[in-house]
Amino acid sequence: MIICDSSSLILLAKINRLSIVNSLYGKILIPKAVYDEVVVKGKEERYSDAFLIEKQIGESIAVKELDKTHTAKAESLKAVIGKGEAEAIALCEQERQKTLLTDDLDSMRIAKEHGIKCRTTLGLLYEALKKGLIRLRDYESSLKEFSKNAWISAEIITEFLQAGQRLKGDKR
Is residue 172 part of a domain? Predict the structure, then answer.
């Protein structure tokens, strides 16, 4: 199981790679705030990824409420990061889950301060390639789609592209 914040969940849906998370970690667990941001608000805005994610609720994605103690913890974190990210970190602590899927640098810093390991969406794609869950060309197309949907430098995308090609012995 892995706990996921809003941006990572949205990006994985946009690039049609939610199943990779399930293959690597089993079920995705999200807090109510992430569900509200991604599904409820996303459907109001008619975002296709919101509908894709909603279909997975109860199957590969579970929504979990925070208890009172961890709701207070999330409230204190909202001064520094967004509501979904704050609840995701608090949910990691509540569930004693030590891995958070996030692409937000502030969330990563705070999570690490709380003893929580972070995975990024790009790292997850690389891990899937390494474990043979996706082929190199699918990895490359996922990176291309990711770069269209995320605020990320071309240099980072190029680094992941080259790392994948080296891993698979591609001499391009």
Answer: no
User: Phi/psi at 29 (nearest 5 deg)?
Assistant: -115, 130
User: How far apart are alpha carbons 69 and 48 in whole angstroms?
Assistant: 34
- The amino acid at residue 116 is I
Residues 40/41/42/45 CA torsion (nearest 10 deg): 130
Judge whether 54 and 81 are in contact, CB under 8 Å.
no
Structural domain including 163 reads 133-167
Cα separation, 135 vs 34, in Å, equals 30
For residue 34, which of 17, 14, 50, 16 has the smallest C-alpha distance?
Answer: 50
List of the chain residues with pLDDT < 50: none
Classify residue 148 by burial, with Cβ atoms within 10 Å: 0-12, 13-18, 19+: exposed
Number of domains composing the chain: 2
Q: What is the pTM of this model?
A: 0.92
Quote the Cα angle for 73-78-81, to 5°.
120
